[in-house]
Amino acid sequence: MSRPLAITTLGLVHIYRTEGHDVAALSGVDFSVAAGDVVGLLGPSGSGKSTLLSLLGGLLRPSAGRVFVGEHELSTMSPAQIDAYQAVEASLMLQGARRNLVPYLDVRENVAFAQVQARRLGADVPDVGHVLNLVGATAFADRPLSALSQGQLQMSALAVAMASAPGVLLADEPTSALDRSAREVILDALLRVNAQEGTTIVAVTHDPEVAERLPRTVTIRDGRIGGEGRRGREYAVVTADGFVPLPVHIRADLPPGTLLRWERSEQGYTVVPEVIGHDPAQTD
Ligand code: ADP
Ligand code: MG
Question: For residue 191, what is the DSSP state?
Answer without folding.
Answer: H
